[in-house]
Amino acid sequence: MSFIARSAFRQAARAAAVAAPARSFSALARSAAISHVPRAAAFKAASSQTRTIKTINFGGTEETVYERSDYPPAKLQETFKNDTLAVLGYGPQGRGQALNLRDNKLNVIIGCRKGASWDKAVSEGWVPGKDLFEINEACDKGTVIMNLLSDAAQSKLWSEIKPYLTKGKTLYFSHGFSVVYADDTGVIPPKDIDVVLVAPKGSGTTVRNLFLEGRGINGSVAVYQDYSGKAMERAVALGVGVGTGYLYETTFKKEVFSDLYGERGVLMGAIQGLFVAQYEVLRAKGHSPSEAFNETVEEATQSLYPLIGANGMDWMYANCSTTAQRGALDWWKKFHDASRPVFEELYASVEDGTETRRSLTKNSASNYRSELEKELAEIADHEMWRTGIAVRKLRPENQK
Ligand SMILES: NC(=O)c1ccc[n+]([C@@H]2O[C@H](COP(=O)([O-])OP(=O)(O)OC[C@H]3O[C@@H](n4cnc5c(N)ncnc54)[C@H](OP(=O)(O)O)[C@@H]3O)[C@@H](O)[C@H]2O)c1
């Protein structure tokens, strides 16, 4: 463990003793300025109760947040007592959301093609002809069509799904992709249905696991088309039904722009680029693979990032050695200035649909799988990630 990490841990222990609480969302929500705003007209429950929403001050900006305590299971069952929720696809999201809806005792059915997803659904208790159907049959039976096919399949199968979207039904997505980039996907919903979005902020496996632990994942909620006049109310209820805890209000466009931007940026694309660049310079200057990896990836993911996640970057800067602190304060703006133009270019590429077109073309190509494997192998074969395999084995938790 390097100087900065030792120092961080020492000071973390000290700071914990003087109460530097990890800012979980619930703690944040409790401490932030929360106001309860009745929205009688726009947000009435099926029982005619007036519902409340919360306005939370996030760093100076007021935002609307819905929470699952507004929808206990009995309320969900009442809201959807006349509905059949048809979940299309049994990938990570379809599986996680459908199992949570079933455990919430809602009337849910699955629609998927025969193959891996179908077999998985059968193995988890869905019964063909009872609550597991081919996609067109599920669309016919469903009043809420929850389109959790892969984004490429949503576009490919749109002409088969659309005829079943009859007046008064609800079309649900977990990504704004298909609707926002309609010029490229062809997904243009009929005008006489509700179109809503609930996007859990994590994989379907996490959606399921947190639900089983009695907690809810955070999610985004949006309405694209409100035909019934109750689209937001029903979207929030669906969000709670599929297992979210807090729902942040957004739009389809903002959801998809931020999602495509983030995963290409700091979540995966930018971080891999930074890791490799830092590692390469260390190796070129004669540092060993283990030293270069430890200073680049291991210390970041195992020590600093969890602390930053728990306490914020200001806390991290305040709780490291003065040497590390001086250097990080001097250098962060240089990295900012160098990367800002790349982020601008990335956002423009998301905004004008370039990223979507590339994704649709690449992901529906017949050689998709073999090309992907080549690109993943290039990352896996890089000395840095091969070094990572050896380093991870030496972690205390991986030793017998
Ligand atoms: N993964 C995440 O972290 C995440 C988070 C939030 C939102 N979302 C969104 O949730 C939605 C579903 O994501 P996912 O990760 O669960 O999707 P996925 O794994 O990419 O695919 C889900 C389903 O699509 C089916 N499918 C693919 N091509 C098909 C075709 N040509 N015909 C019929 N079925 C086909 C798959 O069936 P087979 O098994 O038969 O191929 C599978 O059941 C997407 O809109 C995604 O953007 C994902």
Individual helix count: 20
Which strand order do you get reading across the main beta sheet?
1-2-3-11-10-9-8-7-4-5-6
User: Tell me about the biggest sheet?
Assistant: 11 strands, mixed
| Principal-axis shape | globular
Identify low-pLDDT runs: 1-51
Roughly how much helix do the residues carry, as a percent range?
40-55%
Per DSSP, what share of the residues sits in E-state strands of 2 or more residues? Answer: 5-15%
Instruction: Name the bound molecules.
Output: NADP nicotinamide-adenine-dinucleotide phosphate
Rg over alpha carbons: 24 Å
How many beta-strand segments?
11
N- and C-termini, Cα separation:
21 Å
SS-derived structural category: alpha/beta
How would you state the average pLDDT, rounded? 88
Concise overview:
The protein has helices spanning 3-17, 25-31, 73-79, 92-103, 116-123, 135-141, 151-156, 158-161, 177-180, 182-185, 204-212, 231-241, 252-264, 269-284, 289-311, 313-318, 322-351, 354-363, 368-380, 383-393, and strands at residues 34-38, 52-58, 61-67, 85-88, 108-111, 132-133, 144-147, 170-173, 194-200, 217-225, 244-249.
Q: Could you explain the architecture of this structure?
A:
- Residues 251-398 form the KARI C-terminal knotted domain.
- Pathway: Amino-acid biosynthesis; L-isoleucine biosynthesis; L-isoleucine from 2-oxobutanoate: step 2/4; Amino-acid biosynthesis; L-valine biosynthesis; L-valine from pyruvate: step 2/4.
- The protein has 400 residues and is of the alpha/beta class.
- Helices cover 54% and strands 15% of the residues.
- The protein contains 20 helices and eleven strands.
- The chain has helices spanning 3-17, 25-31, 73-79, 92-103, 116-123, 135-141, 151-156, 158-161, 177-180, 182-185, 204-212, 231-241, 252-264, 269-284, 289-311, 313-318, 322-351, 354-363, 368-380, 383-393, and strands at 34-38, 52-58, 61-67, 85-88, 108-111, 132-133, 144-147, 170-173, 194-200, 217-225, 244-249.
- It has an eleven-stranded mixed sheet, with helices on both faces.
- Helix 13 crosses helix 17 and helix 14 packs antiparallel against helix 15.
- The chain is globular, with a radius of gyration of 24 Å.
- The chain starts with a helix and ends in a 7-residue tail after the last helix.
- Mean pLDDT is 88; it is low at 1-51.
- It binds NADP nicotinamide-adenine-dinucleotide phosphate.
- Residues 89-94, 112-113, 115-117, 148-151, 153, 156-157, 174-175, 199-200, 203-204 line the site of NADP nicotinamide-adenine-dinucleotide phosphate (NAP).
- The site of NADP nicotinamide-adenine-dinucleotide phosphate has 24 residues, from helix 4, helix 5, helix 7 and strand 9.
